[in-house]
Amino acid sequence: MGLNNNFLQGAALILGASSGFGGACSVTLARCGMDVFGVHLDRKSTLSNVEALSAEIGKAGRKAHFFNVNAADAEKRKEVLETIQKECEGPFPVRILVHSLAFGTLKSFIAPTEQGTLSQPQMQMTLDVMAHSLVYWVQDLVRSQLMGKGGRVFAMTSEGGRRVWESYGAVSAAKSALESHVRQLAVELAPYEITVNALCAGVTDTPALRKIPGHETMIQSARTGNPMGRLTTPADVAGAIALLAHPMAGFITGNVINVDGGESISGRA
After folding, report:
1. Is 246 exposed, middle or buried (0-12, 13-18, 19+ CB in 10 A)?
2. Residue among 134, 34, 21 at smallest CA distance from 77
3. For the chain, which residues make up each domain, given as ranges?
4. Domain 11-257 falls in which CATH fold?
5. pLDDT digit string (tens) for 186-217?
6. CA–CA separation, 142 vs 89, rounded Å?
7. Which strand (E) or helix (H) includes residue 87?
């Protein structure tokens, strides 16, 4: 079975769809033949990103439906899935779920003042949004028969789940939990023939990265240390997801897959 411009079918549900990895996946998967349902949380000033993505998806001849809601809200999740059921024909319409939520608190565990210290609600919110929400979306997709045999679940992790960066503690914990959830879901969904993998991108210049203290140093180090001589891009990750969504990749599950041009193994970044 070869690859062509429309080698994928069905719909993709992308959480965190308006920029970065989610935005790139929206366009790439549409160009591969998929309709796109995107969940994002944007203020009015950044809604132009969604309008541009919708236009690109339309140029690819696919349908786009975006929801400006909190992906960690259970009621909003229910509303999104009910809309997908109404919009789609046939059983198990959602072939791909991409979890690319980057919303958490960047504070130190230990700080001179209480205001500057990570609080319990901030820790809980970060893990709920960036890790636990993956489980809840998958549960509801499978329970409502929106995803079935041949389904693909992808979650975005990072090197920060195994390293210590300034103010990144809560997000690091969330990435570690996310990878654990990927392994558990991969085993539990294997009888359904649904695969689950985490993708670990190299340093990528996204809006989420630019919120991390010291991101300038990280970008410069990756530019000079990456064996391929450049930063990872959202398009690199979207391309990997498209390939892993191919029917021939149906036995790849439960992994953390690096998409980084060799950055993580070079010892130079």
Report:
1. middle
2. 134
3. 11-257
4. Rossmann fold (3.40.50)
5. 999 999 999 999 999 999 988 888 888 778 88
6. 16
7. helix 74-87
